[in-house]
Amino acid sequence: MRLHATLVLGVAGIILGFQPAAEAVPQAPSQPRRTVAEFAAEESRAPSAVPCPEDLRRAEVEPLGPGPARLATIRCLDLPRGQDYRLPPVLSPDGQSVAFWDRGQVSPLDVVAFDAGAGFRLSNRVTFRDFGTGIQDDRQDALAWLSDGSGLWSVEQQVVRPNGWALSGLTPILIERGGNVRRFAPPEHAAGPLDALAWVGGDGRAIAQFGTRGDRYRPEHDDPSPTLAMIDVPRRRILHSLTAEDAEALRLRAGSYNGFSLFDVSAVQSPDGRLLALLQFERVVDRSHGRASNVGPRQERFLPAVWLVWTQGQRPAPLTPFFDDRFARAELTPGGSHILAWRPLQPEGPIIHDCRNCQPPPPPTPIDATVAALIDARSGRTVWSLEARASEFWNRFGGPVISPTGRFALIPLPAVNRRQMIGLLSMVDGRILQRFSLACSGCYPQSFGFTGSGGQMWIGIMNRLVFYDLR
User: CB count, 10 Å around CB of 462?
Assistant: First the structure.
């Protein structure tokens, strides 16, 4: 069992830029204290594309060894104050624009074209911005580019200010390149308002939830018939829907929670045009199970983790998740025939974060185990698995990303020498073809992905995106 002893006293020792962990960061000269109004003005401005510093050390972003990827270019952004810890950027299919959607009171949504300099910013605070409810790291499910990159799909919502309770369901929106917003009335459903949305591709199709989050509204309301649906937003059509009666996992969770509780989704479009979704349900407490007796503590019962493979027009098929790990992630391959499963493998031992006056913990015990696997989505058969050694603790970041061609994938790997590691994976046999490391463990997390053609991959950290050609 991994033990955690955590006392957080603030972020310390963060390394800026691409500097190795061992290097010290020079202290910035003291600056005059700025006023609240000056900070507000700084935060309100939109980011822009800027030339990269002349002293940028390109050698530090080179791949760690030969392989299919070759360093192509580095794109730099001028981000407003406090925007270094951003959620993962969403890159346009052509790799020429990027979108960021932050949290907070304003929740700015920023869009920047690399060749146009200044971008634009929209205030876009919503309560239901993620499809899941905390099972994974922050995702950008409700943000997707049009297939041709000419606009950006998102959602908006009426919320109580300043606390953020929902006053309405979600309204799908399309943000055009110039910043104009087109609003789409969502499909109506008897189950309730649109309470979550995860875009699938760039043509306005999505996986949706209706009537699943009534406890986050003011006034609060019950959800007697929570429903999942595949929808076409521009045509305002419901393509297919699921209720609690369509799968045992849904029935058990609907009876235990107001909605379906903790889960995540991966969705793609099949070659015949139908949508495919992988619904990933976490192991959770069964709230419908009361006390076993009138004396003693409540005996908790759990609903097991389960995958549901859902094809448009068909009943969902259950699969046993490959990893029994609450931080595991799984993604459907293009076309939906297979599932790439991944987990953040960690060694055994106590973890102590920034604890003053603590005795140094014993070194962790290395673990050799499976970090990723490819699964047949119909049979659940393992096609291949990838073993890795975790000998030091590392900060979780991201999850598996599969290239549009299906040839490659990018996954986080266990840290080595206190460096965050990313692996370029062959989807054919599960071999690591190349490794990358742009940050130390505990530094700014790395994000990564592929361009729409699959001909390039990218890694983002702080205000920089590094592009690599794939051959």
Answer: 21
Q: Looking up tokens 């507000």, which residue turns up?
A: 40
Which pLDDT score is estimated for 85?
54
pLDDT digits (tens, 9 = 90+) for 40-74: 555 667 889 999 988 888 888 999 999 999 999 99
Evaluate if residue 451 carries a pLDDT over 50: yes
DSSP class of residue 360 equals P
Report DSSP letters for 210-254, one per residue. Answer: ES--GGGBSS----SS-EEEEEETTTTEEEEEEEGGG-HHHHHHH
CB 346 within 8 A of CB 395: no
Intra-chain end-to-end CA distance of the chain, in Å: 42
Q: Are 371 and 342 in contact (CB under 8 A)?
A: yes
Whether residue 80 contacts residue 47, with contact meaning beta carbons closer than 8 Å, is answered with yes
- Check pLDDT > 80 for residue 93: yes
> 84 near 468, Cβ under 8 Å?
no
Q: Where is mean pLDDT largest: 136-140, 163-167, 260-264?
A: 163-167
Instruction: Please check whether residue 238 is in contact with residue 169, taking contact to mean a CB–CB distance below 8 angstroms.
Output: no
Cα dist. 254→135, 214, 227, 250, 259 in Å? Answer: 17, 13, 10, 6, 5
What pTM value is reported for the model?
Answer: 0.88
